[in-house]
Write a structure and sequence with these properties.
Blueprint: H1 2-15, E1 24-32, E2 36-40, E3 47-50, E4 64-71, E5 80-82, H2 83-98, E6 104-113, E7 116-121, E8 124-129, H3 140-143, E9 148-156, E10 161-165, H4 166-184, E11 190-198, E12 202-206, E13 211-215, E14 236-245, E15 250-254, H5 266-269, E16 275-284, E17 287-293, E18 296-301, E19 323-332, E20 337-341, H6 353-356, E21 362-371, E22 374-378, E23 384-388, E24 410-419, E25 424-428, H7 437-443, E26 449-458, E27 461-467, E28 470-475, H8 481-486, E29 492-501, E30 506-510
Parallel strand pairs: 8-10, 13-15, 18-20, 23-25, 28-30
Antiparallel strand pairs: 1-2, 1-4, 2-3, 4-5, 6-7, 6-9, 7-8, 9-10, 11-12, 11-14, 12-13, 14-15, 16-17, 16-19, 17-18, 19-20, 21-22, 21-24, 22-23, 24-25, 26-27, 26-29, 27-28, 29-30
């Protein structure tokens, strides 16, 4: 059994590609949605790319195109991909590859012109842009008709002209120094450097002639949103050489590797079920990140904040820097994730809700919020129930509950049903009063003619007021089109009863008398 498990794990590992951040890889479009595209790159998780990064011709499920790997795993556990970055990088590589770089030649500047110098190179006139001249400190007298070394950086075969760079020739000495530095750099060693540029994905560090890239994920054991939280331009920092590729000129650097990994012995620090204190460091729509110690963060998912409150925006309950006590729900060392809970520190009020609120119980609550389909009412212990629009009035058609109730208003209700498992309490307002529909059916028998007032006009008919709290519906088929076209709310309309449904609480009317 153990051998089979080992074999399965080996096959699974072989099926997953070995990827690294900064790599360009083929990805297959899995599905296309209105704002995003799901992409499969053969890794353990799929990636989501904004649809704005694609040409219309590329938006075909099953089509393979190139993507840049931003990160191996984001906050949602998915691989971070970018189509834009892949296009930019490949475009740059193509330009560099196709450029005619030429070679080092000797030439003589013969004339100063706008934007640079004309240079005689073996009888061919070349142009040296000022930006590539590197003639700082030299007068025109010391430049014109004197020999210098140049590098051909562009050739125009049609015009027989060349673009030159003296600066790149001067860099030869720097290249020699760089070659010496390459010999000194060793993987695993700590080397001093200077931050020379900062991007969204990391920082470029000058190691003394060789630039290295310090990815954002290698800056700190803690999660950070931007490299500028850790480093600034010009900072002198000591970094660890993680990887080197002299052929491509790439050096990967690490800053956090200078310090012990706080996740290494995580099981001995925290146990499932234990209570811990931490500081709120980030608030997102799906939850709150709490720093338990430097480099260790846990997530309180919105579903673990409260037993009773509907948490739509955690920012209304928390602020960065808040100290909170939480319970550890789960520790995933491999994924470096800790699940936390606030509500588990309190008794679950839903365990006794069915015995506390039997069906038919009359209780007073406070209006907490509205939806298009009802009103949320807070009961004891912060439990919430909902009055559906159909349970507000026996006779009145309620379109906007907030027209009847105000937030904070106290209201008497009846418990209609309790579902502890799904944490739902159905409340009724109209059930506080007797059902008037049996009497209405007697009062308004079929063929009763009425003087009504138009309340609302819809595609399927006209709602009219029969009496103060009673409405009926004149069906579209029961009113002349000419009359219907002229009606507006407030108009008087004669109608007769053609149907009374006491069970459905409806009166059907006709304007064809």
């Amino acid at each position: 059994m153990a051998a089979e498990k080992s074999q399965m794990e080996e096959l699974y590992n072989q099926s997953i590609k070995i990827l690294r951040e900064g790599q360009i890889i083929k990805g297959k479009i899995v599905s296309v949605k209105s704002k995003e595209v799901l992409v499969d790159v053969g890794f353990k998780s799929e990636g989501i790319v904004p649809i704005t990064q694609f040409n219309k011709d590329d938006l075909e499920p099953g089509k393979e195109i190139d993507f840049y790997i931003d990160c191996i795993e984001d906050d949602s556990g998915m691989i971070g991909l970018s189509r834009d970055k892949a296009i930019r990088i490949q475009g740059w590589d193509k330009i560099v590859k196709n450029a005619n770089e030429g070679a080092l030649v000797e030439g003589k500047p013969i004339k100063k012109v706008k934007g640079g110098f004309l240079v005689d190179v073996m009888g061919i006139e070349g142009f040296l842009p000022t930006s590539l001249s590197s003639f700082r400190g030299l007068t025109d007298r010391n430049i014109l008709y004197n020999n210098f070394k140049f590098k051909i950086i562009k050739v125009n075969n049609l015009r027989h002209s060349i673009i030159l760079s003296h600066r790149e020739a001067m860099q030869k000495a720097k290249e020699e120094a760089k070659e010496k530095l390459w010999q000194e750099l060793k993987t695993g060693n700590i080397h001093p450097g200077t931050v020379k540029a900062i991007t969204d994905f990391g920082a470029f560090v000058d190691l003394g002639g060789v630039d290295g890239l310090l990815y954002i994920t290698d800056m700190s054991w803690s999660k950070i949103s931007h490299p500028s939280e850790i480093v600034a331009l010009g900072d002198k920092i000591d970094v660890v050489i993680l990887n080197m590729d002299k052929e491509s000129g790439k050096v990967s650097l690490g800053l956090k590797q200078r310090f012990p990994d706080p996740w290494q012995d995580i099981e001995t620090k925290y146990t499932v079920g234990s209570k811990v204190k931490g500081k709120v460091v980030n608030i997102l729509p799906y939850g709150v990140f709490v720093e338990l110690e430097k480099g260790i963060e846990g997530l309180i998912h919105v579903s673990e904040i409260s037993w009773t409150k509907r948490v739509n925006n955690p920012q209304e309950m928390f602020a960065i820097g808040d100290m909170v006590e939480v319970q550890v729900l789960n520790i995933d060392k491999e994924s470096r994730k800790i699940s936390l809970s606030l509500k588990q520190l309190e008794q679950n009020p839903w365990l006794e809700v069915e015995s506390k609120y039997p069906v038919g119980t009359k209780i007073q609550g406070k209006v907490r919020g509205f939806t298009a389909y009802g009103v949320f009412v807070e009961l004891d212990n912060s439990l919430e129930g909902m009055i559906h629009v159909s349970d507000i009035s026996w006779t009145k058609r309620v379109t906007h509950p907030q027209d009847i109730f105000k937030k904070g208003q106290k209201v008497d209700v009846v418990i209609l049903s309790v579902d502890a498992q799904n944490r739902r309490i159905a409340l009724g307002l109209k059930q506080l009063l007797p059902n008037p529909w049996p009497e209405i059916a007697v009062k308004y028998p079929v063929d009763t003619e009425l003087d009504t007032e138009v309340v609302n006009i819809n595609d399927f008919g006209v709602f009219v007021k029969i009496e103060e709290e009673l409405e009926g519906l004149v069906y579209s088929s029961e009113i002349d089109k000419e009359i219907l076209a002229q009606l507006k709310p407030g108009d008087k309309l004669k109608a007769k009863v053609i149907k009374v449904d006491a069970e459905q609480a409806k009166i059907g009317l006709s304007a064809k008398l």
